[in-house]
Design brief:
By secondary structure, the protein is mostly beta strands. It is 11% helix and 46% strand. It folds into two domains: 104 residues, Rossmann fold (3-Layer(aba) Sandwich); 209 residues, no CATH class. It starts with 12 loop residues before the first strand and ends with a strand.
């Protein structure tokens, strides 16, 4: 999830950095059923407002629609209103506030908009048959995402890794922070602090500092700094400044995929559940909002969502693939507790 994400647009392009992929990507198979309802609602809203007015928009979901559908409806409505000449704003001081509620009954999904202008209110309601939203039959395997939290702490986490421990079967957990590499040794199923390696750097870190642990290379890299040594023997690790070009910085930024017009965190996995090109990507909110991770398949130059999103209580900050490309390392921040969380997201399937 990128800090700059704000405006939501319909999915039009897939861009995976650190790769040569650049393909046109339609929305998932069930992502067009709301188009006519959104257009009708946009027309009704426009009829109650002055042309080119500044408006703010909120969307509340009381239906069984998943987060991806809700984000798609909001994105479509924003675009519809912009095409009608309205300017979206976070402030209602100089315009109108539109509160949209998504609900449902036995037959229909209902989109209701309350338009606030000073002391006046107008209501616009449209509906769409629920059967229209039913996904088409597919031969793809069912995809399920599972999350295992490895570590939580108040301070910022850039990356993490588990390395082989001693002859007694223990392991060491390595946490990469902006100012140190922290090592934790297992003891009675509880990780205990073992050692820390300070990361000295002459220049201040960028606000969105990134870092990555590469166990195969036995190194940890931050902008202009590299720490190398045997990670199973932390006393051998030394950090030093190193020249880093734009390509190196791009590697630290990780891969992104463009969904709903926004660059989001993404990883490309190997062959999983019979899917040869499986992507995991975060949601399209900003760093002040709850987030999600969802699986996508890329086949025949087409991008399609698989399974349900895995919800998080805060933004997903970093996604890195595991060495075997069967799972992903995830750094997120829990907005309820304020802690940073390191977790593993794995994929399972059921045909």
């Amino acid at each position: 999830m990128r800090a700059a994400r704000r405006l939501l647009l319909l999915p039009t392009l897939l861009l995976l950095t650190n790769s040569s992929i650049a393909v046109a990507a339609p929305v998932p198979q069930d992502a067009h059923w709301w188009d006519s309802a959104v257009d009708s609602l946009g027309s009704k809203i426009a009829g109650d407002l002055m042309p080119r007015a500044a408006i703010s928009l909120t969307v509340k979901n009381l239906s069984s629609l998943d987060s991806a559908a809700v984000a798609g409806i909001r994105a479509a409505l924003e675009i519809n209103l912009q095409h009608r000449g309205f300017a979206l704003s976070r402030s209602t001081a100089s315009g109108a506030a539109i509160d949209v509620t998504l609900s449902e009954n036995m037959q229909d999904y209902v989109l209701a908009a309350v338009i606030h202008r000073g002391d006046e209110e107008q209501v616009a309601i449209v509906s769409v048959a629920r059967f229209a939203a039913a996904p088409a039959a597919t031969s793809e395997p069912a995809i399920f995402l599972q999350r295992q939290i490895i570590w939580q702490q108040p301070g910022k986490i850039l990356d993490f890794a588990a390395v082989a421990g001693d002859a007694n079967g223990g392991f060491a957990l390595v946490i990469l922070e902006p100012e140190r590499l922290a090592f934790y040794k297992s003891a009675s199923s509880q990780s205990q602090p073992d050692r820390a390696v300070t990361i000295a750097h002459a220049k201040p870190w960028p606000r969105d500092v990134r870092g990555k642990i590469d166990l195969e290379a036995q190194s940890a890299t931050l902008p202009g700094v590299q720490c190398s040594g045997r990670f199973d023997h932390p006393e051998t690790i030394q950090c030093s400044e190193t020249a880093q070009d734009k390509s190196g910085l791009a590697q630290l930024a990780g891969a992104t995929v463009q969904i709903s017009g926004q660059d989001v965190e993404a990883v490309r996995l190997g062959s999983v559940c019979g899917v040869n090109s499986l992507l995991l990507a975060s949601g399209t909110g900003d760093w002040t909002q709850p987030d999600s991770i969802r699986a996508y398949t890329l086949a025949d130059q087409q991008l399609a969502a698989l399974g349900k999103p895995l919800d998080y209580a805060g933004p997903v900050l970093v996604l890195w693939p595991s060495s075997d490309r069967q799972s992903a390392r995830v750094i997120s921040r829990n907005l309820l507790t304020g802690t940073y969380e390191a977790s593993i997201v794995s994929v399972s399937c059921n045909r």
